[in-house]
Amino acid sequence: MVYCERCDRYYPYSYSYNQHLRDSPNHNICDDCDRDFATWHGLKEHYVQSPYHDYCQYCDSHFSDHDDLTAHYDDEHAYCSSCDEVFKNDFGLHEHNRQAHHYCTDCKRVFQSESNLRSHMNSSVHRPKSVPCPFRGCGQSFVSKSALVLHLESGSCRSGADRRMVDQYVREVDRNNMITDPSRLLTAGDDVTYTATRRSWNGREYECVLCHKTFRSLSDLNRHLASPRHQDKIYRCPLATCHTTFSTLSALCQHVESERCGVLRFKAAQEVMDGLLRHVGVITYG
Fold first, then answer.
1. Which of 26, 40, 150, 214 has the least CB density, counted as fewest CB within 10 Å?
2. Taking the model in full, what pTM does it have?
3. Residue 23 class from Cβ within 10 Å (0-12 exposed, 13-18 middle, 19+ buried)?
4. Range of the domain at 226
């Protein structure tokens, strides 16, 4: 005789007792863990809480590992991978993201940082291209003033403007050195031009002799050398307490627009940027 204490019943044979365990609603068994729960709810909670089970309580489905479970969550449920949390519906996930993460409610996208979200909000996705290039014959417009300066520095403007022209003009206009470093200007002079040859091949890739970064092709290396990467950082933030320096005016403008140091909160610094860039005929920070 076999006695079931939970049900207070005797069974004459082991097989009949085992049949009872399988069929009775009073016995809910986890075969993997060899545990018997009095209710289905208790067994389900065990599946959810136990680190030995990868279980979706919403679908009553088991998975081979946690990666398969999270892939299922991604495909079938309103799932926040950052918090490893499943929500009842998309609206619940939307509200969670809005309150807990750096989240664009219009695009329903989560960003890793506040600055990344701000950059997204300042992109052409959310901002019109309302900053026109002032040079005759160009006709292009941009979402920000820094994007316009980058356009000029890149040499892609039909006017023929390039980074050297922008730098030279700033040198002439910024006579009080509010955004340029006079010590760097003395040593910088005109930009030094570097050109790599096939002698830059190190046996595996083309190597920059200045920073030792490697490239798959000679043209990629020369594009790197033509960039501002190895030019002196002649620009500086006009906020006295910031001390951040830059190789290009566009990088300085991006820094100002990002408001990382709060430079635009200071009227004097804002007037410096306004005045200089207004004379360039390019941008104003009004």
1. 40
2. 0.51
3. exposed
4. 193-230
